[in-house]
Design a protein that fits this description.
Helices cover 28% and strands 16% of the residues. With 344 residues, the chain is an alpha/beta fold. The protein has a single domain, classed as TIM Barrel (Alpha-Beta Barrel). Helix 4 packs parallel to helix 6.
Length: 344
């Protein structure tokens, strides 16, 4: 039985046009981002906030309850774990996710402190394998389901995230996460604002999708912190939004996928699990945009998809040189890496 969600997505970065993974240089030169004009990238001010002390982190979304994987997560000494909430999966509502969190809290990270346990939540797409999905839903019904996932993830649908009905669903999801005792939330698919049908729908309603995204994450922060003031909030991708200080202020950190190495092929089957070099121009865009976050004191967590020794070495070395906390794994995200970071 499936015990998690798909692996991470990496198609929107520092641009105002959609990112096609592994695109040619000719295609990449069309990308543009205001953060590209900010000067050279590199470590900014020292990270601050509740995640500033995280030295090692790990990211697993699938097979958490299979084959002793939860025990392996506990036996590891990663300081922060990003995992899924198993009981949010349709048919798994009975599962004791709170028990998993309590177990992980009873185990220590690299510095002898209890692990920080952060819950993945997709706030930009409806997922038909979650508890909230209703029979008969499809694109356009309800009207806030805007389309199918642009990169082919089955069962994932970008949403008009400013609609009250969708935000009610997110509120209920956040309640469940907080109830289970997670230390934080890891927000995925924030690039939804730039998905064509979403942007077009916003314009047709006299709205600016980018401004709506800022309001949306501010609402998430206010809702979550009214219930748990200490809950940490991590953004995944959409690093180009770092040009807006009011957006960055919502988050305790940003996580960026595939700055140097990615996977490929059918995303649901994971045809290529990693070791595909990212175009250097695209890498530089990531670095420039992430520098905005660093300048505001936000830690940057980097997940690279690779396992070839030379690529793993390059990824960790490059991440360290930029001041990132890097984790090398493979796109299924179905177990702890076999290539932990130096010094782990």
């Amino acid at each position: 039985m499936r015990d998690g969600v798909r692996s991470g997505r990496r198609w929107r970065v520092c641009s105002r046009t959609a990112f096609i993974p592994f695109a040619s240089l000719a295609a990449l030169v069309t990308l543009s981002c205001s953060c590209m004009d900010d000067g050279p990238s590199g470590p900014g001010q020292d990270p601050t906030g509740p995640l500033a002390g995280v030295e090692f982190w790990a990211y697993q979304l699938q097979d958490q309850t299979e084959g002793g994987n939860m025990q392996l997560l506990g036996e590891s000494h990663y300081d922060m774990l990003v995992i899924d909430q198993t009981r949010s999966l349709a048919g798994e509502e009975w599962y004791d996710s709170a028990g998993d969190v309590a177990y992980l809290h009873s185990t220590d990270g690299s510095q002898g402190d209890p692990k920080i346990v952060v819950c993945y939540i997709d706030v930009g797409e409806a997922e038909d394998y979650r508890y909230y999905w209703q029979q008969g839903w499809q694109v356009g019904d309800p009207e806030w389901i805007a389309g199918e996932d642009p990169d082919g993830w089955d069962g994932n649908y970008p949403v008009l995230f400013w609609y009250d009905e969708w935000q009610d669903i997110v509120a209920g999801y956040l309640d469940r996460i907080i109830e289970d005792g997670y230390d934080g939330i890891y927000l995925d698919w924030l690039e939804v604002y730039d998905f064509g049908p979403v942007d077009s729908a916003a314009a047709a309603q006299g709205l600016d999708a980018e401004e709506e995204l800022i309001s949306y994450v501010q609402w998430i922060e206010q809702y979550a912190h009214a219930r748990d003031p200490g809950l940490v909030i991590v953004a995944q991708n959409a690093s180009e939004m770092g040009t807006y200080s009011e957006y960055v202020a919502v988050f305790d950190a940003i996580a960026q996928e595939a700055i140097w190495f990615d996977g490929g092929g059918d995303p649901d089957t994971g045809d290529v699990l990693g070791d595909v070099p990212v175009d250097p121009d695209l890498t530089q865009e990531y670095l420039d945009c992430l520098a905005d976050w660093q300048a505001l004191g936000k830690p940057v967590f980097d997940v690279e998809y690779c396992e070839q020794p030379t690529n793993v070495e390059e990824a960790y070395s490059s991440g360290e040189s930029e001041g990132y906390v890097t984790y090398c794994t493979l796109t299924p995200l179905d177990g702890l890496t076999q290539d932990p970071p130096p010094g782990y």
